[in-house]
Automatic annotation (TrEMBL), chains A, B, C, D:
SUPFAM superfamilies: Homeodomain-like. Residues 41-60 bind DNA. Residues 18-78 form the HTH tetR-type domain. Keywords: DNA-binding, Transcription, Transcription regulation. It comes from Paracraurococcus lichenis. This is Helix-turn-helix domain-containing protein. The keyword Iron-sulfur does not apply. It comes from the Bacteria. The lineage of its organism: Bacteria, Pseudomonadati, Pseudomonadota, Alphaproteobacteria, Acetobacterales.
Length: 202, 202, 202, 202
DNA sequence: GATGAATGAGTTTTCATTCAT
DNA sequence: GATGAATGAAAACTCATTCAT
């Protein structure tokens, strides 16, 4: 077999691998969303794929690993987005608009229709998730700049902001149709000015 | 057997039943806290009890049912507390102080030491939980009174406030020792005035 | 307590005992009929009674024992009937008419409506059942008298006759409404003259 | 892997599957025969196999399902035999000889030695069993031809004939050694001429 | 690397039976 | 003798993972 063909074949193989991996991840995302992590079985995942059950283990060592990979994957996709927004944003409001809008649109895309199954993962179950938390914390710290009291507890504040995004997002998913933009506007206002102020305007 | 004795016996039996139910619930609470809902098995629960395996099924039909009972139980305990605070509180700040303080102290009591395992149950998985959500929503609506724009989306705002409490609470549980009062102060400020204002003070 | 009262009370007790025993037997008969022996549980039986589960064991040592008691009971009720018919009957036809008619009416009474659940008990699972088999065999032997070849295999012939009664009876139970008399007529004719002869007449 | 090898492998796998299925069915047949359906457990069945417990569930969903499969299987094997006899037989006697002889030999083969446990399944528990009943009924109807009164109740007569075969067969299995031919002769005579006639000859 | 049946440890669940009251 | 909750052995069943092909 000539080197050229070998290379071509290797390319094709790599492509197939990537495609299979993606197929498994996509199936897992849907299954976890519909059944929840515990109720979902590897069989459920593989069944939504046209692969054989054993093949799963060529890609992921276990059910736990794919769950981690999924979370990491989500974080991976979130992180550059957060980064980009951090560069672009002039102020806190701009940054929040960008970030929360993107997050809510992502939620609708990935979970719309299965609202009920948004996985309530621990905030820092995986390294990637922790990275997202840190990214948010750093962004907030930087943007707030010297308007930040030295003793301010940024971990709590970051957690609070993420809590708002999470729960308003979940609430949004429950509506038909979900309105990511309206929800984002309210979430941003809530973070910026607090509940009484947010309640005073529509 | 005389009626008197019968009654006494019935009383003792009812007591034993209640005690067993409580023992199982307590064991489940601990097991869920330590292992997480999914990893926990009915065996794990019953093992922490001095009851026989079959006895579990005299009280709960399945692991899912006890989880629901647990959540309902928690909500049940939360609700009167919320109610009481609603009566007592003069303004939003007073109400939030009371409610969030109580919630955080409850968290520390029930999950302190097993911070990692605060169950991230769906906001409205059970009727009791839905009731808590409604209770919070109503309290907020009433306290805000005419400072509330007619078109304000109270479902989103309530979700946001609960999100703050949940995630700041979780963050607090991760600290040793947890400081429910400090965390509550920050959560309240965040809800009242928003993140920039909360960041400006300690 | 005077002897008189004691006696009266003893009588009442004996009555209650007899009534409870009958209640349990009746419930068991229905439960076995509806679910089959294996699927039926002692709980199912006791549930159809207004007795407590433990009480069952004051009357029967086990589920197996009540099944035996039930079969014995059926046989017990069948046997005197067979005996009586044997005395009364002038000839084979008369005896068969009496016996099979009685058996079919008994079937309708006990299993009508639950046709599907006629228990296919082994012909000789219990002593009482064996006794019925023997009773039938003896009756046949006596009534046939010297029209019986010495080498005739009465066990096979008795089994055959019982087989006819059993299966025609089951078939009858499947009809709505069951017609014990029509079925009995055909069964008797079949036993007496064989299938071709029975087919030649209605 | 080349297509040729793939096919070969698929063939081998299919073979193994078929062999395993047969092994489980055979084990179940023996276990049911020895313990009776109710007393038998899936564990008992799988233990007589060199397969793992979970493997059972790759083939049958439950104990009930394998029982049905077994009955269906038996009926499946009986039907072609009945069909063949129907073509071949010149008259009722010939047909009965063929059919009952075959049935009794089949009984001895499958249940000989475990006489006590011939499963008394409902006559029409499965489609295949219903098919056997229908096959017998049709065969009888055709062979009797115009010697059959128009109002004759063939369902009852068929049930009666099958009852004879069943119970005489069971009686035969209880003997050591079983004599399928002797038993068949008597059963046939009983069906053809009735009990008195059958009793008059050996 | 793909396949898919086999594995068997582990889990849930049932239920006949016991026993303190 | 009645009660009914507790018992725990035994059964059914699941499913992540392995492995021969």
């Amino acid at each position: 077999m000539s080197a050229v063909i070998e290379t071509a074949e290797a390319g094709r193989r790599a492509q197939t691998k990537a495609r299979n991996r993606e197929a498994i991840l996509a199936a897992a995302r849907r299954v976890f969303a519909e059944l929840g992590y515990e109720a979902a079985s590897v069989r459920d995942i593989i069944r939504r794929t046209n692969l054989a059950s054993g093949t799963f283990y060529n890609y992921f060592r276990s059910k736990e690993e794919i769950a981690r990979a999924l979370a990491a994957d989500a974080a991976e996709r979130l992180r550059p987005l957060l980064r980009a927004e951090r560069e672009r944003a002039a102020d806190l409001e701009g940054w929040l608009d960008g970030v929360i809008g993107a997050y809510f649109r992502y939620l609708v895309e990935d979970y719309g229709g299965h609202a009920a199954a948004l996985p309530h993962v621990r905030i820092d179950a995986t390294p990637a998730q922790r990275a997202v938390f840190e990214e948010v914390r750093e962004s907030l710290t930087r943007i707030l700049g010297d308007r930040l009291a030295p003793q301010a507890d940024m971990a709590y504040l970051t957690a609070g902001a993420i809590g708002i995004a999470r729960y308003v997002g979940e609430q949004m998913l429950r509506r038909t149709p979900p309105d990511p933009d309206g929800a984002a506007r309210i979430a941003v206002r809530l973070i910026l000015h607090g509940l009484p102020a947010a309640a005073r305007t529509a």
